[in-house]
Amino acid sequence: MSAVTLEAFATPICIVPWRQATDSAPIMPLKTLCSSCHLRDLCLPCGMAGSDVQRLDNLKFGRRKVKASQTLYREGDRFQFIYAVRSGTFKSSLLLADGREQVSGFYMAGEVMGLDGVAHGAHASSATALEDTEVCAIPYAHLTELAAGNSGLQHVVSRLMSCEIVREHSLMLLLGSMNAEERLAAFLLNQSQRLKARGYSASEFHLRMSRAEIGSYLGMTLETVSRTFSAFQQQHLLEVDKRYIRVIDLDGLTRAFEMRLH
Amino acid sequence: MSAVTLEAFATPICIVPWRQATDSAPIMPLKTLCSSCHLRDLCLPCGMAGSDVQRLDNLKFGRRKVKASQTLYREGDRFQFIYAVRSGTFKSSLLLADGREQVSGFYMAGEVMGLDGVAHGAHASSATALEDTEVCAIPYAHLTELAAGNSGLQHVVSRLMSCEIVREHSLMLLLGSMNAEERLAAFLLNQSQRLKARGYSASEFHLRMSRAEIGSYLGMTLETVSRTFSAFQQQHLLEVDKRYIRVIDLDGLTRAFEMRLH
DNA sequence: CGAATTGTTGATTCCCCTCAAACTGGGTGG
DNA sequence: CCACCCAGTTTGAGGGGAATCAACAATTCG
Known about the structure:
- Chain A is an alpha+beta fold.
- Chain A has 7 helices and 11 strands.
- Chain A starts with 49 loop residues before the first helix and ends with a helix.
């Protein structure tokens, strides 16, 4: 058995499987409540008891729209909020000495960003929108306050952080011991799974990030990313058209990834 | 400015600088109390108000000795305890498909291991003693219980996790964008700082891990680690005798590391 | 003492980076 | 409308850094 699974790799917070929003659930207009959010099974409330989710509705937080290529926060900014993605995709990144950036993660709907700021009261990375996005900005102080009287909520927050640790474990493993094909296969399979969990096709999707961003994330150059895409195409594992990906042979792709990993 | 610093890189939990244990503090015999532990300024109590540390003495936990090359826990084991290192050095590692391991961290006195287990209730990595060691085994359930009524303690636990996230950020950056010399320089400087914080010499120390373990941690082969040590010796940055390291030119080593990182 | 482990060093290979050129689609302005 | 630019992508050629394979020294240990 092994603790390193594809699910864990690079998946920020998902804990239980996605369920489609049911029509029986009442739609709350004009007010943001976690208990009625269509992302409630992916986001913060995920894994909480129903009664605890009710209490989560006492959580006061705002919405914020961030346009493509705009930053939500930058490394060094004072840490006040954690952010749950409502729609769109973000990348998180660190600055290098030569001005380049190292991408440390991608976040999609229902995933929570910014927990690295708890450590020193300042954000340790920057978050940039890859398309037009919307987030819930949750005041961290308020969240901990609420969590003090609610062990269920406290545990969820702790688990979010621990999941982020496990996610980064997997990425370290990838960066430390996989070759270009294995890295890209792992990345694509992870994207596929996360999109599937959100109700999208697992076999056909549109990447929101550039070759350069994928390369930075996976520790390789954009040229190598492009070449590896071409190689997968020649092996009839994928059809690639710029950022549009169609997975032809999922098993083959999984084998390419499982060369090194359980 | 940059959030990625040498301090952050690979340093699991240290939050405030080390202070020598004072003679004025009474020595508690036969009982393990955080408030009288010689590691109290590095370990869990670090950064807590004095009154909170007093309350921390209600925390019930056991001690455990682990001999060299024995494991404290393995990935997949049920998560019950987090462990604070009292003495000695540990490595944490993940299993690869081919039976090899990927080292994900090294832990020394006062550092806390096992927080990756919170995510799924099972340890996501294994912890192995690199020499004869002793740890405090802290029941996580009990800790969260105690933390529920004490926001100070809760914040400390959260901060521990967030620090682990930031630490892994730095390692990802290292694995993703540094060459062999930069990686080893970063590793040595980090070791040096952590040993210094524990009252040991920053310029002369004994590594507790093998070339293979360093290589696995840094994403390179043991041969490359050995060669890079030799290269540093030829550049008169170090004197190396097996695992004994003497830093000759700290600034030079820092420059080798700062090639890429702020 | 022989066997096993760890570390050093050399020779060779190869994967990926670097540099470079060409192509695409989209946006802009003359 | 088309020329132009620009960012993103693809592809090629060549070189370099680290992996691989291999031999050997130094220690440790049964």
